Amino acid sequence: MRTLSLMGLLLVATACLERMPLPSLEESDRPDFNPDTTYLPLSPSWGSADGLITPIEVVVSYDRHIFVADIGARDILVFNQAGTRLDQVDPTYATLDFDHLVADFTPTDMDIDGRLNLLIINGSNKIYRWNQFWNIHGIDSVASEILVKNVKTGERLWLSPFQQETGAFLAQSPDWFIELDSSRYEKNDAVADSLLRPHEFFDMAFWVNQQYDIFYHPERTVFSAISAARLDDYFFYAADSMQNRILRAELFRNGAIKLGNGEAYFTHFALFVDNVKEIGTGAGTVNLPTGLDVDIFGNLYYSQYGKQIYAHSVRPSKELSFPSRFELFVDDIMTPGQYLRPTDIAVDTRQMIYVANTDLQEILVFNGDGSFFKKAGIEKVTIDTTMWVPFIGEGTFLDTSLWVYFDSDSALVDTTIFIPAVMDSALVDTFYYWEKKGQLVKPVSVAADERGVIYVCDPKQGGVFRFILSTSFDEELTDINQ
Hints:
Blueprint: E1 3-5, E2 39-46, E3 55-60, E4 66-70, E5 75-79, E6 109-112, E7 117-121, E8 126-131, H1 132-137, E9 139-150, E10 156-160, H2 168-172, E11 176-186, H3 189-196, E12 199-203, H4 207-212, E13 223-228, E14 235-240, E15 245-259, E16 264-277, E17 289-294, E18 300-304, E19 311-314, E20 342-347, E21 353-357, E22 362-366, E23 372-376, E24 379-390, E25 396-406, E26 409-419, E27 425-436, E28 445-448, E29 454-458, E30 463-469
Parallel strand pairs: 1-10
Antiparallel strand pairs: 2-30, 3-4, 4-5, 6-7, 7-8, 8-12, 9-10, 9-11, 9-15, 13-14, 14-15, 15-16, 17-18, 18-19, 20-21, 21-22, 22-23, 24-27, 25-26, 28-29, 29-30
C-alpha cells in the first residue's frame, strides 16, 4: 500500500460536485404588485423576550431557518419562521458556540451556502465556518485514507487527508477519480468535534493567500461583509473595508467524513482566488463596503458608505471585470440622493432587491431591473388639505403637478387648478401622502424569505422586525405570527 498526502484540496474544487439533500422549497408566485399595496409590520417582533440584545445581522437558510447575529450576546441565535428559538430546543445547534475560538469572539456578519456552511466573520482577516447539515446528522467517522483511481490505467493509490503538503497533481488531475465510498474511515472524536463546532475556514494571512494576493496586503484585510454564491457554486465573496475591495475565495477539498446517516461527504477549506471589484467612485467600484448578496443568476450586489454611489450590482464576467448592471442617474437604485448610510443589501428568489437605508430609518425595495418599488418600515399617512398656489397667466383651468411640502417631507400631486385672470394665486383643495417614520430606528441588516417576508435587524431597538406586503397577507400566512 502506497500512501500520499492529500494536497489536492488546493487545486480540485469542482471536478466532482458533491450534493447533499436540501429541504425542498415550494414555487413562490410573485405577489400582486399593484399601486395600492404597502408593507405591513408583523407582530410580534422578536426582541429581548427572545434573547436578543443587539442584533446586527440576519440571514435566511435554505431550510427556512433564520440566523441572527447579536453583538450584545456575542452569539448567533436561530429562529424558525414563526419565531421559535430553535437553538434553545433543537440539539442541532448545541455546537453553535464560539467560546473555544478567540477571546470575546463577536460575529458581525454571516451567510449560508448551498452545502449549509454558515460562513461567519468577526471584523478580522479570517472567516469561520459552522456546517448545519453535518450537525443535523452528526459525524460518525473521519477518513483516515482516501482512495483514488487512475481512470486510464486502473491504478489505485491511497491519500492522507487533512494535510497541506504535496501530491496535489493526483487529486486535481482528470486522470484520477476519488472513490469516496471506498475510502477508509475511523472513529476520531477530536476531529469530529472540531468540524462540528465553528472553526477557522479561511485566513488571508495564510502563506498561499499571501502568494496569490500580490497587489494588496492580505494580513491587513478587514472583512466587513460576506456572501455565499449560488446554490451549486464552490466559492464565496467577502468585502474588505480596509482596502476597499471585494474578493472571491474558492472551496477546496481537504478530507472526508461519514455522517450518522451513512453518507460520505468531502470536507473543504477556502483559498483566495481573485479580487472581483476594487476601489473607485463610479458604477461597479468599491468604497467602504457594508453589505453583500448574490442572486440566483450569480449577480453580485453590494452596499457601501463611500462616495457617489451607495448600492451596486455587477454581473459575473471575468473578461469584462464584472461590469455594472445598472446605470447612474438612470436606474432608480443608483440615484445617490435617496441614501443615507445604507448598511446592508439583499436580493430574494424573485429578484426583489432590499436596501437597509440606515440613517433614513427605512428599507428601500427595488424591482430586479433597478426600478423603485416601495418602502418598508414607514407608514403612509394621507393628508387632505387646501393651499394657496401662486401663478402667473390668464384665467383658465390648468391640469398640473405640484410639489407639496410638509415638515421635512414632500410629494408630487397631480391636480387641476383654476387660474382667474384678475388673481395672482388660487386656493387648491388637494391631498398628499406623508411618510411617517418610527417603526425602524436603526435598520442595519435585511433579508427576505421565499414568501416575501422581510426581516430587519434594528440594534437600537434590540429586535428583529418583520414586514409583508398587504397583498400577501392571506390564508397561506395565517401562522406567521404564531
